[in-house]
Amino acid sequence: MTDSYSNPLVYFFGQGRADGTAGMKDVLGGKGASLAEMTNLGIPVPPGFTISSTVCHTYLDAGQFPPRLRAQVETALQRLEAASGRQFGGSAEPMLVSVRSGAAVSMPGMMETILNLGLNDVTVAGLEAQSGNPQFAWDSYRRFVQMYGSVVDGLPRKAFDGILERRKTDADVARVIDLPVEALKSVVADFKAHVEQETGRAFPDDPIEQLWGAIAAVFGSWNTKRAVDYRKLHDIPDAMGTAVNIQTMVFGNLGQDSGTGVAFTRDPSTGAAELYGEYLINAQGEDVVAGTRDPEPISTLGEQMPQVFAELQQMAVTLERHFRDVQDMEFTIEHGRLYMLQTRRAQRSGRAAIKIACDMVDEESISVEEAVARIPPNDLDQLLHPMIDPSATLDLLTTGLPASPGAASGTAVFDADEAEALAREGATVILVRRETNPEDFHGMVAAKAILTARGGMTSHAAVVARGMGKPCVSGAQEITVDEERHCFSVNGREIKRGEWITVDGSAGNVYLGQAALVEPELDGDFSRLLGWADDLRHLQVRVNADTPADAHRGRDFGAEGIGLCRTEHMFFEGDRLSAMREMIVAQDHEGRTRALTKILPMQRSDFEAIFRAMEGFPVTIRLLDPPLHEFLPSNPDEIASLAEELGKTPAEMRRIVEGLEEVNPMLGLRGCRLGIMYPEITRMQARAIFEAACTVAARKGRVMPEVMIPLTATVVEFRKQALIVREVAEEVFRERQITVPFLMGTMIELPRAALTADEIAREAQFFSFGTNDLTQTTWGLSRDDAGRFLPYYLQHNIIDHDPFEILDRDGVGKLIQMATELGRKTRPDLKLGLCGEHGGEPSTVAFCDQLGMNYVSCSPYRVPIARLAAAQEALAQRGTMDRTRATV
Ligand code: ADP
Ligand code: MG
Ligand code: MG
């Protein structure tokens, strides 16, 4: 965005009609746009003005403010003074303001709000006289200098806290608010002296200077590491910039008839349709979220201040109707008068998101399409999270607030950096903190769950955890966290760093040890929503399932067939593993045939069970693609015992195993290469498939096998393997006197296959893109070794995403597109699917639909996500999605 001379840089709100509207988020940021929109709805908002986000980069690039901004801010300040009847810097009726950051998308790392700006030794006297409350005036002043010093000047908070603690001890009081006025005055003086000593500059007394310092700090915070990291993680453009809101103060800390709080128009955890939130009497701003005092539930406000409560409810209804979505509101009560300070789309748990969407459809406030469009597909994941096994014996440590649903176990970690480091090494950790703040964000990303000792249901920890879909217990007051010593104590017990704990964020419980977890039950709203999604989508969704159990789970989650059944995965344990090993180490055709004879019945019975589970939906069975080394022992003892089992000497066995070793097994004797070298393997597998299919068909079951040749590079490989499969099929059909329709196709997972897709499609009836291997082979990169440099690449913007997580559209995607087009040229009815891990990733699902594929296939738990993502893509193609697309 450019600083075009025709556009104003400053937008007024809070009186009459605002200069802005909700639609101007790009310019005003989310906070500014909501303040403008509330003004226009007639909701009481303290007057203020927003500096356009376009100024952010102008300022950051030039290192100074554009000259016309100064003039516009001055005019706005005059207008504010007129609106409030007070003077900025005035000694009798001083006007105080807050300075609040706010981009179009909210993000951590941005400058924290400064309250009470405009106070100095002169104006504080005015505030004192005006309020008749010196305690209040000096406490506000103290808060302001403290916030300004830490936020604008960037000084550590500890020193300020230290000064306060000392004064509290001297005065022998427990709370700052109880300090005598004289002590508060000394605190302010100490704070200012501290700032001067640390920065080398006197604390600014001139309100105008304070204001510009704060504005500059807001813009500067756009480039803090946290903010930059967050934008990267969420694909938010750096060019967006933040707006700055300058707003006249209202005071929730003027006594028992004042207060401040947050409220949600519906319960963001369960979705229940009732006002939900917390508040504190005689408190200001962040007191509620900071967890320094324990807030009251919003329902209590109904008893304490019925009039205010009724108004709040009315505003909630107005805002929710207007924005047609659940709102998260901040309010302040000053001497019994209610003001709104913010409203935004409420973060909600996956479960709440679905219930709310369904309820709003029933209330006829949104359409079915909107309901489907507004659920971020990955949120469904939370509903599919495991819960604690009800029959497990548990050692309850303590109970806190059920801040974010789901359960998880992990080792206790007390520091965000450490959580991140341990998680990177593969550890499962739970972040335990006294309370969290935006600095802990990366640790929360890394942790499986979050536990805090302080803070309510709307604390930072709770809000962020819900957004991430991680279990969280907040406000577990019985625990004392010692962040220095890395431990916490609770009811006489001490839990140290590295000890296992389990957090149940649905119940608010914390247990010692690793609890058994069970799969969740899905409720009616979930199936309703996915039912709507199914009606909307074109793309089919299959499941990757290697066992009958996975196949059943896939069906339960709505899969319409199996897109990938990896036959080698049936052989990872027990008798099966021995038979497999025997087959691999067999030295001749005879030995191999002997082993294969043992394997045949096992495969046949698995296939039968899988066909049955799929009830006639297609089942794509990939012929053996065993990375041989994964099946063979490597240490001498195990080699010796395998030798004994198979009647060989240890030396012989060692020679065989060494003979099978490959420098790069990923690119070695794998896939169809094995079946080409040892056709008896392909023969056996084909027999197992068709015998199973005939058995099911003979009992009137419907069955639709699709036999898939892995790792094809050339059409000749495919032809040879397909020939064997077809021969065996004919044999079995003759023997069983029954015929089962089937398809023959191949996995496309080598660039050469994609490049020659037209030739391969002459003989193959379907393609399934194996994007895991296709990514590895296109990038010339083994996934197991990628960890050495991919993180660096990501950090240094050499690549935007991990290509194993999000399909690399520019490279791998281009190959897929080419193969799709080439393949359909020679075989117009070529069936196309994608079966890598990417198959359950929403943006890849969309891509597959855009290419006109028939299906995606993914792990069972991702099937609902793919169904929803496919529906959203269908809506997007209809053009209805852009307006309503689910936001992060
Ligand atoms: P955040 O984005 O961290 O919520 P906010 O700008 O919303 O930051 O403000 C932090 C706290 O200060 C909130 O509780 C908010 O309601 C309060 N606040 C902000 N501006 C004012 C004001 N002008 N008067 C009273 N309270 C305010
Ligand atoms: Mg806020
Ligand atoms: Mg493969």
Q: Please outline the major beta sheet.
A: 8 strands, mixed
- How far the N terminus sits from the C terminus, by CA atoms, comes to 22 Å
Number of helices: 35
Which kinds of small molecule does this entry bind, naming each only once?
adenosine-5'-diphosphate, magnesium ion
What descriptive keywords fit this protein?
alpha/beta; eight-stranded mixed β-sheet; binds magnesium ion; binds adenosine-5'-diphosphate; disordered C terminus; 46% helix; 17% strand; 888 residues; eight-stranded parallel β-barrel
Textual characterization of the structure:
The structure is a single chain. α17 links the parallel β17 (429-433) and β18 (449-452). The two termini are 22 Å apart. The longest helix has 26 residues, at 589-614. The strands form seven sheets. The chain has an eight-stranded mixed β-sheet. The protein is built from 35 helices and 33 strands. The chain is elongated and about 100 Å long. The protein is an alpha/beta fold. α13 (350-362) crosses α19, α26 crosses α27 (715-736) and α33 crosses α34 (863-878). The site of one magnesium ion has 6 residues, from loops.
Summary?
With 888 residues, the protein is of the alpha/beta class.
Sequence-ordered SSE layout with sheet pairings:
Blueprint: E1 10-13, H1 25-40, E2 48-51, H2 54-62, H3 67-84, E3 87-88, E4 94-95, E5 97-103, E6 114-117, H4 123-131, H5 134-152, H6 157-171, H7 181-199, H8 207-220, H9 225-233, E7 242-248, E8 259-264, E9 276-281, H10 287-290, E10 296-297, H11 298-304, H12 306-323, E11 327-334, E12 337-345, H13 350-362, H14 368-373, H15 380-383, E13 387-388, E14 395-399, E15 401-404, E16 407-413, H16 416-424, E17 429-433, H17 441-446, E18 449-452, H18 460-468, E19 472-474, E20 479-482, E21 487-490, E22 493-496, E23 500-504, E24 509-512, E25 517-518, H19 524-536, E26 540-544, H20 548-556, E27 562-566, H21 574-585, H22 589-614, E28 618-622, H23 636-645, H24 650-660, H25 672-677, H26 679-698, E29 704-709, H27 715-736, E30 743-748, H28 751-755, H29 757-763, E31 766-769, H30 771-779, H31 790-795, H32 809-826, E32 831-834, H33 842-850, E33 855-858, H34 863-878, H35 881-884
Parallel strand pairs: 3-4, 16-17, 17-18, 18-19, 26-27, 26-33, 27-28, 28-29, 29-30, 30-31, 31-32, 32-33
Antiparallel strand pairs: 1-2, 2-7, 5-6, 5-7, 8-9, 8-11, 9-10, 11-12, 13-25, 14-24, 15-19, 16-23, 20-21, 21-22, 23-24
Helix pairs in contact: 4-5, 5-7, 6-7, 11-12, 13-19, 19-34, 20-22, 21-22, 22-26, 23-24, 26-27, 29-32, 33-34
One magnesium ion (MG) binds next to loops.
